[in-house]
Amino acid sequence: MKLFKVSVYVFTSLTLLFISMPVWADAVQVDSLTTLNELRAQNELLQQRSRFTTGGLAMILGITAMLVFLVINNRWNHRLEIKNRQLERERNVVVAQNKQLAVERDRAEQALSVKTSFIQNMTHEIRTPLNAISVFS
Q1: Model-level pTM?
Q2: For residues 59 and 57, what is the distance between their CA atoms, to the nearest angstrom?
């Protein structure tokens, strides 16, 4: 934002400098005693000043366009940094959740194997006496 304020200040200062220049064409007074060479010299001077003013305005517009581009680019870079930080935080949350899910899955698999082992042992313990009873019957 500081860069934007500085660019506005520079643009305003340069614009006021060129606007406040007196209009040299009005200052030229054709007098009956003025010779043709003086008029040509004054005309050449006016053309040089006109070229300077036109070049100066083009330069001001170019500098202004560059400053606007830099300000917009700076804003986009700032937004991009914010989005990257958000994505990094979200990625960290997903990684933590994946680790927690892996731990819970391992616990569930262990509980399943314990349950299966218990059921197999209980089935064996119940079936063995029943077989003995059914043999005597």
Answers
A1: 0.45
A2: 5
